[in-house]
Recover the amino acids of this structure.
């Protein structure tokens, strides 16, 4: 187990390096002139060239990459030309905001999805299962902005139960903050629950049909005890990998949800900087998101290994 | 001559088998009402995309009528009108085509490329497989929506970019899935038996392995189709892909978000259109998967 | 409550409307072991589940009664049924590994079983350890903390047995308890069952397809066919059957010490009827003694002779073993054959373990070499290396005098055609998407054997032309294996490596496939490397027998000589396991594998401490061409007294006094 852990941890910097190359390469693919985009169509060629030179965009590519990488690693992430602020402060501030939404969504997702999936699996092929599975399938397929729009129209615009914007006022207390975040969190949760609940349902059904559950039943174990002793653990352990997959959608969904609910998070910043061709900000956002994603995936994998003794201890014979 | 014949098995002529399959599909449709309804919904949108809004509604989606600005749903405009007085229903019908062009093309591209990569990686093994896995791992460093956003934003808005970007994010998923299914088959003795009698490698891949992973490929294709509609709508919502003013559903939702409190029908109609298509495709994909697992 | 044992009366059950059990009745006294034998599809698994009051989904009980010590099992309400299951009955299924929860420690599972049967929770840990010791699991404290996947197959099976014994049941049902286990492990489980039977005073029902196992362990035997009990009586039934099906089953069952030259196996033609009603006797379509009366009315289960019931209009007199004896084969020409394939110093590894350790082997033209060994012996790796599928490692291969490349892809097509392989599992060795015609046709094409047509090849393997357009999923196990053999024979090979070719088949079907292989050898002079864990099957066809253990060949010689002895102690233990002699001394555990000395020494009953574990064993030669690697002198090596002149009976009643 330890060797595996060390190997995975060692792989992170390598992968991040690869990611940095990708990010840098992407920003190079730009068909347009960065300086011209910033200055506008009417700017003179001379001022465009001057800005290009100032931004260091006329140097050879490897040199640009290395100098950017060097500066990034020591914490100098540059300044945003369009937002006129140091990139690092911008990104880290927004990171906190995004992680707040993502964290709450995840905390709600896990018990809800596991619970619904188990319920559907235990009553499989009966009406509870059909209902849960059907709704889960539908919700898992619908983009977050669609559910978000419906939520907004019904609960914000019509019923006025929740605010239209998720922007938290500066002096708001925790309850008020949660009230603002409810609709975006619900949109994210609805999407991810769909997939995870169906996964848990499937593994529950498999476990119920397994020889060891049958053997325990033939020893006279009551259904309630069966579920407690054997089904619960075996059905939910595979969910760890499903949840890991969902984190992808959770992070991606941040971009959409932040845009729809007017929330100042990292996703919105990524999009904005990509549209504005604000390279330093774009690169920093991409790197931070990539690193966060990798760490989360590693954590999910470790949890799975912890829970499943077959993977943790390996075969002895 | 050896002793004992183990028994007779009947055979049936091919034509009878073919008509039996069609009858089986019809029976399946009757039994699985949900899938039938889903199929009907998809058919409606496909018709709208292929035939065009002109055949289905008298209103012109591009016709601006300032007098009808923000008209509520009623006999004149069944789903109301938007900030330019354009008929919402007509715009929704017209918005079917962009999605139904991008999503299937992206899916087909991703499935073909992904299957080739996955099949060959598992079948050939060795250093080639190792290389493919490393590349796939490297490419999936970012969550797909974020990667797609990054590229589409940088490269510019166009349908072609959308198709390529969506396909590119799906190729690793399809490749991994096909590779896993192929590996399962490779472990079975019939593959070794084929090697023993001297089948060339390409023949092994195409003649022996591919027919046995057909089911996986089909499941991937139908699942990715739903995901492609999801991605196309989402990327359009984010402002990538379609030119401004396009009736595409995601773009329309994004444009009309400001009118949330004033004219919610301009938001609801395209949002529900997306939901209907995406859910219908997902239900169909699920029915296909259940059929194949059976 | 007095113990009256198990009483089953007129049990009828169906699956999805089709009847699978047609009025099964039998009794089992407390302390008695009843064996129920039958082939696949006879309904024994359904019966096994019904004895625990379990009806599989889609099944119904149509009638009949199951009574244990007076309690009507089928009439219990769910709560009472649970209580009954936790205290009165214990079930052991095959595939022990699957019957254990992979995420719970072994000790926790036994404790759960104990608490469930009413044991006090506070004492459960001690009781669990006691139970583990009772099933002969050494080092119970350490083992209890392990997870199932860390245990061997035999240990897992013991844990399952321990869980079944938790409530001190009055009925113990064992459903194929030793299938899939090595012979030596089977023997230990067998010994355990016999001991437990003596302690428990429970009624035991042993369900199996293995006639030998049933004969060794059981007091009485019931033979199931198509959901009906066709014969019921003391285990002598197996040596002197009264029902034609039992007799035919025995006639197709290979016996140790009876090669093809002594007794020819006969397969049972046709197939068993599927679920559903039949008119007349169910076995009539396949019975050589059937008359019109048999096809018209179904016989009842009537007494015949002493304490025996038979369902037949014309029961056999019970004296002869076979109704239609077949002509024994001609003994092979014992002249020295020119060498076809030679292996020198072959080494193959799986990661760190050495699977094949400097093995030398020679196969002559038209010769059948039987390769015997348990799991981990390296026999499959050796086979794959010969065929070219396992190329990495040292060693030299020579074929027809010339060099043979270790990699399959590098061999010339002409050479590739000459060496082919038949695999164990008929289900996965044929491409499920291809029709038979295509499978055989492609084989003929790529092996460049165009002279023979597909239809002709099909006829050669005993399949009619109507099978050609079917897919493997529509064929029976025996038919599939014939197709696999036909595919290998397409290029008229000189050598076919058969890796457990009949292990996955029913006994009555095995005979047909074995005879097919033998006929090919007789007509075309094909040589075989015939691999099996089953000594009786190997001994049937083989000219020479090679015994492998943990990567090395321990013994090598003519099959009659190897069997009769003097032979290697390992061979002796394999024979003892095969004929079901219970262990007289407790089995020794394999500890660390030393690099020096004999690799069998750690578990050998005859090992000499100080010599066997230090020095490599010398080569002894009990007969010409027969080699044994052992420190014992030829006179000290074990013998097997039963040869073809004095065959061992299947029922072991006479032998059981020794345990």
């Amino acid at each position: 187990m330890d060797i595996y852990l060390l190997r995975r941890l060692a792989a992170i910097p390598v992968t991040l390096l690869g990611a940095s190359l990708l990010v840098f390469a992407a920003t190079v693919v730009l068909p347009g002139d960065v300086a011209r985009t910033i200055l506008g169509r009417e700017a003179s060629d001379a001022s465009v060239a001057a800005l290009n030179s100032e931004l260091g965009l006329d140097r050879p590519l490897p040199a640009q990459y290395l100098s950017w990488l060097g500066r990034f690693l020591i914490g100098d992430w540059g300044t945003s030309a369009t937002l006129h602020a140091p990139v690092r402060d911008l990104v880290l501030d927004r990171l906190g905001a995004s992680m707040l939404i993502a964290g709450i969504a995840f905390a709600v997702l896990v018990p809800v999805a596991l619970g619904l999936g188990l319920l559907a699996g235990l009553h499989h092929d009966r009406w509870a299962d059909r209902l849960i599975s059907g709704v889960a399938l539908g919700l898992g397929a619908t983009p977050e902005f669609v559910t978000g729009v419906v939520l907004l129209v019904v609960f914000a615009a019509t019923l006025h139960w929740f605010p239209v914007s998720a922007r938290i006022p500066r002096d708001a207390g925790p309850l008020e903050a949660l009230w603002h975040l409810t609709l975006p969190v619900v949109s994210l949760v609805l999407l991810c629950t769909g997939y995870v609940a169906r996964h848990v349902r499937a593994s529950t059904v498999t476990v119920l049909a397994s020889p060891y559950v049958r053997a325990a039943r033939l020893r006279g174990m009551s259904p309630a005890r069966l579920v407690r002793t054997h089904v619960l653990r075996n059905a939910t352990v595979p969910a760890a990998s499903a949840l890991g997959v969902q984190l992808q959608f959770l992070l991606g969904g941040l971009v959409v949800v932040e845009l729809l609910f007017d929330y100042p998070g990292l996703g919105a910043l990524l999009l904005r900087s990509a549209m504005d061709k604000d390279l330093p900000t774009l690169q920093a956002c991409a790197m931070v998101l990539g690193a966060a994603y990798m760490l989360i995936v590693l954590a999910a994998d470790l949890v799975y290994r912890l829970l499943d003794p077959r993977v943790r201890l390996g075969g002895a014979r | 001559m050896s002793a004992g014949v183990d028994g007779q098995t009947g055979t049936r002529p091919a034509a009878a088998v073919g008509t039996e399959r069609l009858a089986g599909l019809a029976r399946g449709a009757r039994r699985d009402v949900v899938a039938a309804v889903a199929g009907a919904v998809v058919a409606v949108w496909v018709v709208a995309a292929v035939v065009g809004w002109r055949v289905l509604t008298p209103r012109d989606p591009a016709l601006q009528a300032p007098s009808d600005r923000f008209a509520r749903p009623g006999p004149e405009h069944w789903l109301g009108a938007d900030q330019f007085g354009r008929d919402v229903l007509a715009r929704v019908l017209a918005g079917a085509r962009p999605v139904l062009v991008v999503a299937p093309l992206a899916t087909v591209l991703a499935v073909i490329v992904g299957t080739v990569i996955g099949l060959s990686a598992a079948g050939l093994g060795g250093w080639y497989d190792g290389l493919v896995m490393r590349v796939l791992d490297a490419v999936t460093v970012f969550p797909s929506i974020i990667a797609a956003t990054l590229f589409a934003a940088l490269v510019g808005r166009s349908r072609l970019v959308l198709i390529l970007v969506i396909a590119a994010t799906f190729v690793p998923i399809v490749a991994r899935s096909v590779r896993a299914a192929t590996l399962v088959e490779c472990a079975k003795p019939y593959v070794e038996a084929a090697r023993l009698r001297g089948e060339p490698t390409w023949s092994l891949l195409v003649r022996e392995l591919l027919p046995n992973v057909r089911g996986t490929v089909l499941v991937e294709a139908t699942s990715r189709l739903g995901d492609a509609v999801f991605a196309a709508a989402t990327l359009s919502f984010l402002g990538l892909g379609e030119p401004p003013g396009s009736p595409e559903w995601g773009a329309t939702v994004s444009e009309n978000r400001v009118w949330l409190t004033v004219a919610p029908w301009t938001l609801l109609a395209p949002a529900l259109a997306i939901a209907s298509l995406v859910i219908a495709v997902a239900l169909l994909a699920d029915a296909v998967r259940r059929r194949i697992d059976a | 409550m007095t113990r009256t044992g198990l009483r089953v009366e007129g049990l009828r059950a169906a699956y999805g409307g089709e009847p699978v059990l047609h009025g099964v009745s039998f009794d089992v006294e407390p302390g008695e072991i009843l064996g129920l034998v039958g082939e696949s599809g006879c309904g024994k698994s359904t019966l096994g589940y019904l004895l625990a009051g379990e009806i599989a989904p889609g099944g119904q009980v149509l009638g009949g009664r199951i009574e244990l010590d007076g309690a009507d099992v089928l009439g219990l309400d769910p709560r009472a049924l649970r209580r009954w299951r936790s205290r009165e009955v214990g079930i052991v299924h095959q595939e022990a590994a699957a019957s254990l929860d992979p995420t719970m420690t072994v000790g926790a599972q036994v404790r759960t079983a104990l608490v469930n049967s009413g044991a006090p929770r506070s004492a459960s840990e001690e009781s669990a350890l006691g139970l583990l010791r009772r099933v002969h699991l050494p080092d119970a404290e350490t083992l209890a903390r392990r997870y199932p996947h860390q245990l061997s197959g035999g240990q897992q099976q013991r844990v399952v047995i321990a869980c079944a014994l938790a409530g001190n049941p009055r009925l113990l049902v064992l459903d194929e308890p030793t299938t899939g286990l090595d012979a030596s492990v089977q023997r230990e489980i067998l010994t355990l069952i016999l001991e437990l039977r003596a302690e428990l005073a429970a009624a035991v029902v042993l369900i199996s397809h293995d006639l030998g196992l049933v004969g060794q362990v059981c007091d009485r035997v019931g033979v199931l066919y198509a959901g009906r009990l066709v014969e019921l009586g003391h285990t002598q039934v197996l040596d002197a059957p009264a029902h034609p099906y039992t007799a035919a089953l025995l006639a197709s069952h290979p016996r140790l010490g009876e090669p093809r030259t002594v007794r020819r196996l006969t397969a049972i033609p046709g197939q068993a009827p599927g679920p559903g009603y039949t008119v007349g006797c169910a076995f009539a379509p396949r019975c050589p003694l059937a008359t019109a009366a048999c096809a018209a009315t179904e016989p009842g289960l009537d007494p015949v002779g002493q304490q025996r019931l038979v369902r037949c209009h014309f029961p056999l007199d019970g004296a002869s073993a076979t109704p239609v004896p077949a002509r024994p084969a001609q003994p092979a020409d014992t002249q020295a054959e020119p060498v076809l394939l030679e292996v020198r110093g072959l080494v193959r590894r799986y990661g760190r373990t050495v699977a094949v350790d400097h093995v030398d082997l020679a196969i002559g033209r038209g010769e059948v070499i039987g390769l015997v060994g348990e799991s981990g012996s390296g026999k499959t790796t050796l086979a794959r290396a010969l065929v070219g599928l396992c190329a990495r490692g040292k060693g030299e291969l020579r074929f027809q005098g010339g060099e043979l490349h270790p990699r399959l892809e590098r061999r010339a097509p002409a050479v590739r055609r000459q060496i082919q392989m038949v695999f164990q599992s008929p289900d996965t060795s044929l491409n499920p998407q291809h029709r038979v015609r295509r499978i055989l046709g492609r084989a003929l094409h790529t092996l460049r054997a165009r002279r023979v047509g597909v239809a002709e090849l099909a006829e050669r393997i005993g399949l009619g032309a109507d099978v050609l357009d079917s897919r493997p999923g529509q064929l029976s196990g025996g038919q599939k294996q014939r197709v696999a053999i036909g595919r290998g024979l397409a290029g008229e090979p000189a050598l076919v490596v058969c890796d457990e070719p009949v292990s996955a088949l029913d006994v009555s079907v095995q005979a047909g496939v074995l005879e097919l292989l033998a006929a090919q050898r007789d007509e075309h002079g094909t040589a075989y490397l015939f691999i099996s864990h089953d000594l009786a099957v190997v001994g049937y066809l083989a000219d020479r027998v090679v015994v492998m253990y943990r990567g090395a060949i321990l013994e090598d010689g003519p099959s009659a000589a190897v069997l009769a002895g003097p032979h290697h102690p390992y061979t002796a233990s394999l024979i003892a396991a095969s004929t079901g002699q219970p262990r007289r001394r407790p089995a020794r555990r394999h500890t660390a594998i030393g690099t020096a000395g004999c690799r069998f020494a750690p578990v050998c009953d005859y090992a000499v401490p100080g010599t066997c574990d230090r020095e490599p064993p010398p080569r002894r030669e009990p007969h010409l061409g027969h080699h044994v690697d052992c420190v014992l002198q030829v006179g000290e090596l074990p013998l097997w007294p039963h040869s073809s002149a004095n065959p061992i009976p299947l029922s072991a009643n006479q032998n059981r006094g020794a345990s």
